[in-house]
Amino acid sequence: MTHDLDRFRRLCGQYRWLAVFMVASVGLLLTLAHLIAPLVQWGRTPTLTGGRDVAASVIWIAPALCYLFGVWSIGAGMGQLARGRLIQPTLASTLRRVGLALGVGGVISVFVVTNLLRLIGHARGGYLHFDVAGMTLGMIGGALFLLGRVVDQAGAVQAELDEMI
């Protein structure tokens, strides 16, 4: 039993570092491709269109930043489990944070990106971006957020039952 717990904690610690690596590497690539490169190009030929291109590039990565926060939250939860924190409270808070990150990222992907791009004059079209992946992640995020609340309530009920015994 102790061997299984040690192995579980070790795997959680490894997963935490995998999440840190993913957030750092993907975050760096997104920053280079969608912020640094457009700013450098705009610096070479400063035009109004170039400024819009920089703004549009930043708007396009907004959902990805939410998703990366979700990965970071998973890594943080795994790190807490690796250090021996109790599973129930860690699971509840991690589910809520990941659910919120995925839900907000999905909403931004479907509704906000398109409308902000239209607002700055970078795109034309409808008021809704039919992004099945964004819609799916948003729905999964909402479900995870609700499940986190259920896990919290289950912990409270368990604590109350433990006091009665």
What report would you give on this structure?
It is elongated and about 70 Å long. α3 (87-119) packs antiparallel against α4 (132-164). Helix content is 87%, strand content 0%. The mean pLDDT is 89. It is mainly α and 165 residues long.
Number of helices: 4
Question: Spans of 5+ residues with little confidence (pLDDT < 50)?
Answer: none
| Rg (C-alpha, Å) | 20 Å
Structural class from helices and strands?
Answer: mainly alpha
Averaged pLDDT, please?
89
Beta strand count: 0
Helix content: over 70%
Percent of residues in beta strands? Answer: under 5%
Terminus-to-terminus distance: 26 Å
Helix/strand order, N-terminal first: HHHH
The main sheet comes to:
none
General form: elongated
